[in-house]
Sequence to fold (291 residues):
Amino acid sequence: MPQAVRKAIFPVGGLGTRFLPATKAMPKEMLPIVDKPLIQYAVEEAQAAGIEDFIFVTGRGKHAIEDHFDVSFELDTMLRERGKNDMLSAIRSWMPSPGQISYTRQMEPLGLGHAVWCARHLIGDEPFAVLLADDLVLSQTACLKQMVDVHGEIGGSVVAVVDVPREHTDRYGILDVGNDNGRLASVTGLVEKPKPEDAPSTLSIIGRYILQPEVFDHLDKQEKGAGGEIQLTDAMAATLGTNPFHGLRFEGRRFDCGDKAGFLEATIAFALSREDLAMDVRKIIKSYTDT
Ligand code: G1P
Fold:
């Protein structure tokens, strides 16, 4: 049986320039969808997939993330004194236990592959997950849990994928595929941000990965790829042939929250999925669309 996936890396060092001025003094991962920051959705998804070790690769100006995953004594005391147990649960119930979170810094913005490489000593020699908080998934079963289940059956590496319009291939890592049963596709090649005319398919990787530790052997070389950055996609491509490698068309809907329109769409979709808000939000949307 494949070794269990116990550890997850959350690269949170990015500057978030696409959301300025909101991200001038606040990490982009703390932007909320409805009432929860993006990074908390990612951590909760990892918890639902059985992850026990949460490794944040952070950078300057990201203290709010550490504070978010820590006890807030003043707030705790005040809510307890006032008997606000539901709010206490809202600030505590989802927190990983003491010692389950580690932080390391990506000292220079050299790319996603470099960010993941910065966590190599915290991962060691076992399979691990990577979650990019920008990519938010609304699903019945947590996206990473679906991937962990596939990994439990066939091992190797698993990436979550969606079909994108061909004109968007230059925004994502794109797969070249062999056998494809409509849900699982075996990966024969990987290219980072190919031009539409060069893309081997339109199956794009979203920010959810289960990887084998061999990927670090290639990241160790620090080779630069697309955009002059050390790309995770290139290191994954170099491991092809050593272990099974699959793309999973997961059940659920993915929102690219690194993009303003995607962020707004996620806000609407998550609000509509909430019992306490759905009706009001529906009314609001209707008032804008009725002519
Ligand atoms: C990164 C990866 C890319 C992947 C994307 C998913 O790109 O390099 O392969 O498809 O995340 O969101 P970035 O969004 O950092 O440019």
About this structure: The chain has one domain: 7-258. The pocket of 1-O-phosphono-alpha-D-glucopyranose is lined by residues 112, 132, 134-135, 172-173, 192, 204-207, 231-233, 258 (CB under 6 Å). The first strand starts at residue 7 and ends at 11.
